[in-house]
Amino acid sequence: MPLGIRIFLVYVLFIGLTGYFVLNTVMEEIRPGVRQSTEETLVDTANLMAEILRDDFKAGTLNQNRWPELLKAYGERQPKASIWGLPKNQVNHRIYVTDAKGIVVLDSSGVAVGQDYSRWNDVLLTLRGEYGARSSRSDPNDASSSVMHVGAPIRDNGRIIGVVTVAKPNSSLQPYVDRTERRLLAYGAGLIGLGLLFGALLSWWLSAALRRLTAYAKAVSEGRRVEVPHYRGGELEQLATAVEQMRTQLEGKAYVERYVHTLTHELKSPLAAIRGAAELLQGEMPLAQRQRFVSNIDSESVRMQQLIERLLNLAQVEQRQGLEERVAVPLAGLVDELLSAQAGRIEGKRLRVEQAIPGDLALTGEPFLLRQALGNLLENALDFTPVNGVLRFSAERIGEQIEFKLFNQAEAIPEYALPRLSERFYSLPRPDSGRKSTGLGLNFVEEVVKLHGGTLSIGNVEGGVEVTLRLA
């Protein structure tokens, strides 16, 4: 199972359990919370009524005044109120008064006058001077029929002479409880959904970041040139930096070992020639022969210098993972500059140069590397083009790429050599001298082209050889 999916499943489990316990706890607290708030209101109401009824109760005139009518009228009122969107069309308080013995003397419902309520906690505890409250079912078989009762003492000079009880059915609170629970469930589901979406995005981002690192490590192990993934701070950036440092150190060590071995091998031949010529020059010999050996020493020294310089240039390009700058390089102007630099050789061989490159066509990349790469191609073409031969430059834009072609009139390249032309140190004998080059020029060109995201191809065409570069 992919790491991202595992992370997401763990996140889902965590969010699910957390959401369940939080919602369950809050849901269980809603009903008690609403009832506690209602009970606090009942306490205030009961104590207010105890003060209002005290004088008439003390005088024994409760039933003789208008109180029964007032309480009856109160019970018949229809407020037609809208409380946060919920309608309230009737009052739900029941108010009754008991004397010091617990006998009901006034009841807003009119059903309990004369009954003994002395054993109910709201009356019993209040008469004792304690807080009197109870919750009783009007129907013993119906849990939703419970009614809250809160008593308040009627005092005469500090002595409790009666009790006022205010009652409210819990069923009148249920619509508010239900609405709160529905809203809470909706908000909870929404938050859980957002949490899961965030978890999915987080898992996708983390998986994508790790896949980029994995692809980078795989590409490095395969020897491909890739740029290290970039992250903005955090452990992923540290991991990417550590992987890049490890790659640099490992590749650097292997690279140095390979190049030291290669340079040692390639320098053996010119060093042997120079040493042999130097030993012979120590003895007596004709002047013409001495000049020939001195010329050999000079040519081998030049060969060594070219080999070292080209190896250094190639090493610099091979070690790079990307371009240091990207600017527009006019292609026609670059070719003209290279032709001017090689004007002496071109005129010496009386070559015909044809250029068909639009003036507005430009390559995007590093000017220095592009100049060196095209310069190597031109030098290679000049080596194989015969006297009075033809050089032809052409370029065109094809889609998102620019296709550059260099044709030189020459003998066809042997089939066995075509696949190896860009190999390091592989070279064919030059027609003029019969000697081989360092075999690093085309390899350098290929590395530069890869850095620019392009391809190099060399093939035989009618009348000669054509090199094609496809660059972005």
UniProtKB/TrEMBL annotation:
Residue stretches making up the HAMP domain: 204-255
Keywords per UniProt: Kinase, Membrane, Phosphoprotein, Transferase, Transmembrane, Transmembrane helix, Two-component regulatory system
Catalytic reaction list: ATP + protein L-histidine = ADP + protein N-phospho-L-histidine
Top-level taxonomic group: Bacteria
Short name of any one Pfam family annotated for the protein: HisKA
Entry-linked InterPro entries: HAMP_dom, HATPase_C_sf, HATPase_dom, His_kinase_dom, HisK_dim/P_dom, HisK_dim/P_sf, Sensor-like_sf, TCS_sensor_his_kinase
Major location category of this protein: membrane
NCBIfam families in alphabetical order: PRK11100.1
Protein name: histidine kinase
Organism this protein belongs to: Pseudomonas migulae
